[in-house]
Amino acid sequence: MSGVYLDYNASGLVRPEVQDVMAKALADNGNPSAVHAAGRRSRARIETARAQVADLVGADPTAVVFSSGGTESNAQAILSAIAAGCERLIVGATEHPCVAEAAAVSGLPVEILPVDADGVVDLGWLAGALTRPGRAVVAIHHANNESGVIQPIAEAAALTRAAGGWLHVDAIQSAGKITVDMRTLDADTLTLSAHKLGGPQGVGALISKEGVPIIRTLHGAGQERGLRAGTENVPGIAGFGVAADCAMRDLPTAMAHKAWRDAAEAQVTAAGATIIGGAVERLPNTLFMAVEGWDSPQQLITMDLQGVMVSAGSACSSGKTKPSKAISAMGLDHLAPGGVRVSGGWGTVEADWVRFADAWVASYEKHRARAAGRVRENA
Fold first, then answer.
1. 316 is annotated as an active-site residue
2. Which three-class secondary structure state does DSSP give residue 353?
3. What pLDDT score does 377 carry?
4. DSSP secondary-structure letter at 151?
5. Catalytic residue from among 86, 98, 246, 316
6. What is the distance between the alpha carbons of residues 162 and 361, in angstroms, rounded to a whole number?
7. Cα–Cα distance measured from residue 51 to residue 65, given in angstroms and rounded to the nearest whole number
8. In this predicted model, what pLDDT tens digit does every residue of 305-360 receive, in sequence order?
9. Rounded to the nearest 5 degrees, what angle is found at the Cα of 135, between the Cα atoms of 132 and 140?
10. DSSP, residue by residue, 96-127
11. How far is residue 234's CA from residue 43's CA, in Å, rounded to a whole number?
12. What is the DSSP code string of 33-78?
């Protein structure tokens, strides 16, 4: 790929190791439900990947249900909680749209769990909400996909557990960037997506705590222990497994991004940008910034023309050029139209961050000079 790619939170570049294993699976793609040799080889690829994905989050392989992606798995988790007797939903204000929308169409009452000015969920509010009648499913992502702000999941789990609720954690952004452990987080259900790890798009997983009942949302044959019908995407699942394995291998060096990110952050801050969530713990690869008077689409086009690929926040909304949901939820509406997210990954080097910062600062200075010129002309 030419240019500088700094949009890993939207979709990571596919790792070479993943490409290799997927090519082999495509060349030997028997149906994994078949009993002949090709089928058995496909089944072995799936079960190897199941163990690799489970290892990434400290889970038992039998708890992993593969799906078409994070959106499907998040919906399955919420529907499973409802089927298990949850009567209402509490959803974080900065959750990914697929979680918010799944809650909205569930037919149950939905309460929005507010965040503070740094984007961290209000645990005091949650504690109060959990005292109200009705068993609740609480949905909080481990790390925000826009700002990278890390949430106090273990503390939320303790509150939810004490109230007899169900905690669902979307760990799609955090996995592979920081340690994610099912036992430590104490979540009932947790979701992952392959393409955030350097795997293929269109593959995800739902992982459940032992004893937590999961229902199937796609009906048909008995694939995935009867929990997700349809012939498995063997090449994609095999790629997911290798991506998870590589992500776990690279986790000790993932923090290198923090120093590179922080240097770029200091440069854009000096030029006038506001860092979103900068006062709290964030993913080491993520920089979310905003300015007034220079809308996100204009910034993205300017950066792209200089060979630097970044985004305006959530990949599910940035293509529609909507103001940032995360920024608005933090009470910073005046900055929401001007948000830009920069996110590195396995293929990022320090020079990529330097190039971004240099290009953005120079472009912002030109933008302000043009804006000042227009003001003088209209005076």
1. yes
2. helix
3. 73
4. P
5. 316
6. 49
7. 11
8. 999 999 996 555 444 557 888 899 999 999 999 999 999 999 999 999 999 999 99
9. 90
10. -HHHHHHHHTSSS-EEEE-B-TTS-B-HHHHH
11. 8
12. T--SHHHHHHHHHHHHHHHHHHHHTT--GGGEEEES-HHHHHHHHH
Half-sphere exposure in the Cβ direction for 54 (13 Å, CA):
16
The answer, yes or no, to whether residue 174 has pLDDT greater than 60, is yes
* Strand ranges inside 242-379, DSSP E: 274-275, 286-290, 308-309, 339-343
- d(CA 323, CA 62) in angstroms, rounded, equals 40
Closest CA to 311 of 1, 2, 12: 12
The DSSP call for residue 150 is B
- State the residue for tokens 């199937």: 216
Q: What is the pLDDT of residue 372?
A: 83
Phi, psi at residue 218, to the nearest 5°?
A: -115, 125
Q: How far out from the chain centre does Cα 193 lie? A: 8
Number of Cα atoms under 13 Å in the Cβ half of residue 213: 9
Under DSSP, is residue 208 helix (H, G, I), strand (E, B) or coil? strand
State how far the Cα of 289 lies from the Cα of 327, in Å rounded to an integer. 10
Residue 38 pLDDT greater than 60, yes or no: yes
Q: Any idea which residue has 């199941």 for tokens? A: 50
Read off φ and ψ for residue 118, nearest 5 degrees: -100, -5
Angstrom distances, CA of residue 189 to CA of 112, 129, 221, 250, 259: 19, 20, 23, 25, 33
Q: Which amino acid is at 245?
A: D
Residue 95 has pLDDT above 50, yes or no: yes
Q: Which residues pair with 59 in a beta bridge?
A: none
Ramachandran region, residue 266 (left: φ > 0; alpha: ψ -120 to 50; beta: rest): alpha
pLDDT tens figures, 223-272 = 999 999 999 999 999 999 999 999 999 998 888 899 999 999 999 999 99
CA 347 from chain centre, in angstroms, equals 18
Edge-to-edge order in the sheet of strand 286-290? 274-275, 286-290, 339-343
- Let me know: does 234 contact 242? Beta carbons within 8 Å: no
Residue 2, pLDDT above cutoff 80: no
- Flag whether the pTM goes above 0.85: yes
Instruction: Write 98-101 long-range contacts (CB < 8 A, 24+).
Output: 98/70, 98/71, 98/74, 98/316, 99/74, 99/139, 99/141, 99/168, 99/170
